[in-house]
Amino acid sequence: MDLHTSVPPTRLRTFAAGPLPVLVAAALWGTTGTAASFAPADPVSIGAATMGFGGLLLLALAGRSALTAARAAGPGLLLLGALAVAVYPLAFYTSMALAGVAIGTVVALGSAPVFAALLERWADGARLDGRWALAAALSVLGGALLITGGSREGGGDGSVLGVLLGLLAGATYVVYSWVAGRLMRRGHGSRAVLGALFGAGAAVLLPVLALTGGGLLRSTTGVLVAGYLALVPMGLAYVAFGAGLRRTPVRVATTLTLLEPLVAAVLGVVVVGERFGAQSWLGMALLLAGLVLAGTRRP
């Protein structure tokens, strides 16, 4: 079958320019939990190092254009985005430490489409189409099956707090994605916008790292893990995410990033040695179906 007769070129170009970079970013983000598990440090210092150093990297890549984007954003929007950037990694990594890598990841990313829809509906008056609703429902259901079908130990106050912090991570992730998308639609480049937001967020996170990161930075393994997290899931992934966000609505982008817990679960099986039953594999299939449905939406 001729590919050009079965899939319209416009659809392929739209997918390659928007959803595909978001999916690449989500896959790289899915490695964070496994990588962080090797670091001999508390989750707060890991989160502060990851997005603190990563924010400096994104600021350096953006150069002067980040200052232009920051001025255009204004103090209110810039502060909102920077605070969301700063809170997200602290909540996310602590959530994974308390509730488990997969649970923390799925709660944070699984709640994001709901938060994104509510924010876009309230702030932008966006209409929610049935295709997105079905994609989000399949993805969230798949994530829930993935977690409840696993063989992880958990329970107690730590897991409850971990879930609550995962929800906070999902909400703050949506806020800074929305701020970034808003600035990009005003004509600013993705590198400039992410450099401005994450550079401002780094100004908050690096002092946190200075207070909590002694154990992380004194260990060779800790430095290597922090370097990987800052360069790959932060630097490279957010460049790809920013490029995709220019052509993808926030509610769709946050649905696509549900690929992250799928990658995290697979790495848990292959690298960490975790085991999953039939229910969990069904959850992965539903999660993938939701991602495909969201990623192939009509332009």
TrEMBL record:
EamA domain mapped to chain residues: 20-147, 161-294
Main location group: membrane
Keyword Ribonucleoprotein listed: no
Localization in the cell: Membrane
Record's keyword annotation contains RNA-binding: no
Alphabetical UniProt keywords: Membrane, Transmembrane, Transmembrane helix
Membrane topology: Multi-pass membrane protein
Spans through the membrane: 12-32, 44-62, 69-91, 97-119, 131-148, 160-180, 192-217, 223-245, 252-272, 278-296
Pfam families: EamA (PF00892)
Family statement: Belongs to the EamA transporter family.
Protein's name in the database: EamA family transporter
